[in-house]
Write a structure and sequence with these properties.
single chain; about 290 residues; Endonuclease, Chain A; three-stranded mixed sheet; about 25% strand
C-alpha cells in the first residue's frame, strides 16, 4: 500500500517534482517504525490507516480513473462506481487522500505542500473535516497540517500559483485575495480577472500576476500568437487594469518565486502589507489575552 509522496503521485496531486529527487518509494506499514527497509523503499508507520484503491479502467474505448474508498478486499468490478462494461487495467492500494495529505504536510515544507492541499480540495477528493479527523488520530504534533488547512485555497488554479501563494505567506506578507475580477469597460471582455490582489487600508490596489513560461511558448495558451504579440497584449491588459483602479502591478515568474529574494524584493518595492508587525493586519494581546 503506497503512502506519503508516492500516494500523492498516484492521486495526481500537484506539487514540485523535486520532492522525488531522493527517488524513494513510500509504503505504509502497520507495525515497526518509519525507516528505510530496502534500497529506495521507505516504510511509513500507520496503524490501521484509512485506505482506498485507485483503479484505471477502460470503458467505451476511453481510459478512465476512479477512486474507490474503503475497498480493501474483493474485486474492483463489484464496486458500484464502475460501469458494467468496465475493463480493469490496474488497481493500486494507497492511503486515503486525507491520510496522504497529513503525512505529506508533516514531511515536506509548507510552500511545497500547499499545492497538494489546494489541488485535492479543488478536485473534491477530500474535505477539511476529513483531514482534521486524521489529525485527531495522530500521536504527534499536527501543527504544520493545521497551518496548511488555515491557508489552503482551492481558488489557486494550478501548482505554480499555489507555490507563489504559499511563498508570499511564508515570507510574512498579508494574504492576498485570489482570482479577483475587475470591471474594465475599456477591455474587449469588459472584465479582467487577476491572480492575486491586495486592497490596502490607504486605498492602494496592488495586483500580482504569476507568469508561467507556457503563456509565451505553449500554442494552446498563446492561441498561436508570437511572443511580441503576447507581450503587447499584456501591456494593454495592464493599461485596462489601471483604468479599473489598480495602482500597482507586479509580475513574477516561477524562478523568482523559487529563489524567493526576487519575489520578496518586488513585494517590498510595491509596499505590499506585511502580516507580521503591521498595525492594520495584526493586533497585540496582553498577558490576560485582551486585545489592544
Amino acid at each position: 500500500m503506497f503512502a506519503d509522496i508516492s500516494a500523492a503521485a498516484i492521486f495526481n496531486l500537484e506539487y514540485h517534482w523535486n520532492l522525488h529527487q531522493r527517488q524513494t518509494i513510500f509504503i505504509a506499514a502497520s507495525n515497526g517504525n518509519s525507516a528505510r527497509v530496502h534500497g529506495n523503499v521507505q516504510r511509513v508507520f500507520a496503524k490501521n490507516p484509512p485506505i482506498c484503491s485507485v483503479v484505471r479502467y477502460q470503458s467505451s474505448g476511453r481510459l478512465r480513473t476512479v477512486l474507490l474508498p474503503n475497498t480493501t478486499t474483493g474485486p474492483a468490478t463489484t464496486a458500484p462506481s464502475l460501469p458494467a462494461n468496465a475493463v480493469i487495467i490496474d488497481r493500486v492500494s494507497v492511503t486515503s487522500p486525507a491520510r496522504t495529505l497529513v503525512d505529506c504536510g508533516l514531511h515536506y515544507p509548507f510552500t511545497q505542500t500547499i499545492a497538494m492541499f489546494d489541488s485535492a480540495l479543488r478536485r473534491g477528493i477530500v474535505t477539511r473535516e476529513q483531514i482534521l479527523e486524521i489529525c485527531d488520530t495522530m500521536q504527534r504534533d499536527c501543527g504544520p497540517v493545521q497551518r496548511l488547512l488555515y491557508y489552503t485555497n482551492p481558488l489557486n488554479e494550478n501548482g505554480g500559483e499555489s507555490f507563489c501563494y504559499g511563498t508570499i505567506i511564508d515570507e510574512g506578507f498579508a494574504v492576498p485575495e485570489l482570482q479577483h475580477v475587475f470591471i474594465a469597460p475599456q477591455s474587449p471582455q469588459g472584465t479582467l480577472r487577476v491572480d492575486f490582489v491586495w486592497h490596502t487600508h490607504d486605498g492602494r490596489v496592488i495586483v500580482l500576476e504569476f507568469d508561467g513560461t507556457d503563456k509565451y511558448v505553449n500554442p494552446s495558451m498563446t492561441n498561436k500568437r508570437g511572443i511580441r504579440q503576447v507581450v503587447h497584449d499584456e501591456r494593454r491588459r495592464e493599461d485596462f487594469l489601471k483604468q479599473a483602479g489598480v495602482t500597482t502591478i507586479i509580475r513574477v515568474n516561477y524562478a523568482e518565486v523559487e529563489q524567493r529574494t526576487p519575489l520578496t524584493r518586488k513585494l517590498l518595492e510595491a509596499n505590499v502589507p506585511m502580516a507580521r508587525a503591521h498595525p492594520f493586519y495584526e493586533r497585540y494581546t496582553d498577558v490576560a489575552g485582551r486585545v489592544w
